[in-house]
Amino acid sequence: MAGKRATKIAVVGFGPRGLGALEALAEQAASDAMALNVDLFEPAFPPGAGPNFDPDESPVCQLNIPMRDIDIRPPRGSRCGAFADWLTPAPGPDMFPRRRDLGRYLAARYDDLRRDGGLALRHDTAAIDSVERGGDGWMLRRGPQSFGPYDEVLLTLGQPAVAPDEQLGEWQTHAAETGAVLRQAYPAWKLQRDAAGWTGQTVAIRGLALSAFDVIRLLTLGQGGRFKNGRYINSGSEPGLLVPFSLEGLPPFPKPETAALDARFEPTEAETDAFARAISSASEATPDVARAQVSGALLAAVRRVLDKVGDASDDAADWLDREWDDPGSQETGPATRALDAGIAMAEGRVAPSAGYVFGQVWRKWQNALRRGYNLASTPPETARMLVAFDEGLKRYSYGPPVSASRELAALVAAGVVTLDFTADPVISMTGTGWTLAANGAGVEADVMVDGVLPSPDLSQVRTPLITGLIAQGRLCAISDGLAANVVADGQLLDRDGHIVPGLGFLGRLALGSVIAADSLHDCFGQASVRWARGVIARNMQRRN
């Protein structure tokens, strides 16, 4: 029985979130002088980095966080230290590092944990198909292979395979039947490799968020192009024309360029305390009450900032009301005007708009938002509203570096990128390609790249590990369109609302139970600490 053998833990999926969870577990276990055996199941190598931060990824892919804001503190006793201290040459605070460099750092932290973390770690490359409860604990399976039993299982899966939406499904059929070239944005190294054969062709890019910036860099800089004195210099190997588009048709707004510019949006300590109280209360309230509580705290900070550096603050309340009613819908085109306006605000050349200030203040409250929301038991309708509001503001809070926006403007000026078809164009499948039409004009695309991140809607997930747990009734959505129902320490709630003991679930696929889970900082935040403390507490109960 479990009490007569060493405590065994399995972590399925081991990117940054799995690493953060085990670092937290190692610290908690050391405090309690507890020995734990942990099996990690992660096909990718090295463990800890995950596919988004693969050390072998293309060097043109950047983080969307400047060094000044990267605060993933290493665990006690780590030989790596902070990322800024580990990285050589030493980066400046306004630099946006390469994702591959962060991946090397995370891999080094895993090596630290493996050598000195106090956990008995074993890495297995098996891709787990199912999790089932046996008499002695949890069993994992990969085809005919079985692993276990385990006292605790933690799932940190990242983005699993999902059913394609109607549009993408039609394109996949078109590609299969005609040989049309349809590619995914990631892994980036593969897209960069494939793009070497697209010289002179027209490439359409589905999505105009951060993934589109990666795709555009991979198809230009990744093919030998370069920027000089604000102009793009063709290599002759890149595609002839890039045509990004999305439903809204507008690029995300870049972050303030320097620490000094960013400091203008810093909330006061009193404003942050007021927001923390508001979000804690709002997370357990009805939607109307929650909206009023969050609005009150947010407006106070935004009006103060607008009075100092922005447009008239009288418009802030109207802007916020419209944002609640239809998140992410307020800005209008054309895309080139929005791109230029975002660059000018990020550089401090023009006063920030009300929307820009709301987004920057909200970005600075992400930790307070997670602390207040993730500990609550949020009613489904309130969860849907607050998640939609946070997701809508990502066009500001998760924006790219202003350097990437300037590159996009330079590519438009050079005729390599067109923004004439960005706003939900009419798309038809023709021959072995696609036609995009908007405003009486059309363009023929030889290649289509899908850069849209799927929603975490559990009903659309097709990964057997997830669908199996849903069929067992152990994994349930908090509400239609949202993700897994979990408690504060990450344990799942089953279809009857009961905790599934020892089955943890952290990350984006718990959106609704948690909020703002896409952030790198969330991987090393309090969600991991709460899970680790729960494991220790349950293990002590088993021993006693």
In words, what does this structure look like?
The strands form five sheets. Strands 3-2-1-7-18-17 form a six-stranded mixed sheet, with helices on one face. It has a four-stranded parallel sheet with strand order 8-16-9-12, sandwiched between helices. The protein is globular and about 70 Å long. It starts with 7 loop residues before the first strand and ends with a helix. The chain has 544 residues and is α/β, with parallel strands linked by helices. 39% of the residues lie in helices and 16% in strands. The protein has helices at residues 16-31, 83-86, 99-116, 166-178, 188-195, 210-219, 259-263, 269-282, 287-309, 316-325, 335-346, 354-364, 366-374, 380-392, 394-397, 402-413, 464-472, 520-523, 526-543, and strands at residues 8-12, 37-41, 120-124, 130-134, 137-142, 145-150, 152-155, 181-184, 202-206, 226-228, 231-233, 241-245, 426-430, 433-438, 441-445, 447-450, 491-493, 499-505. The chain has three domains: 2-161 and 456-543, FAD/NAD(P)-binding domain; 166-252 and 401-450, FAD/NAD(P)-binding domain (3-Layer(bba) Sandwich); 259-396, no CATH class.
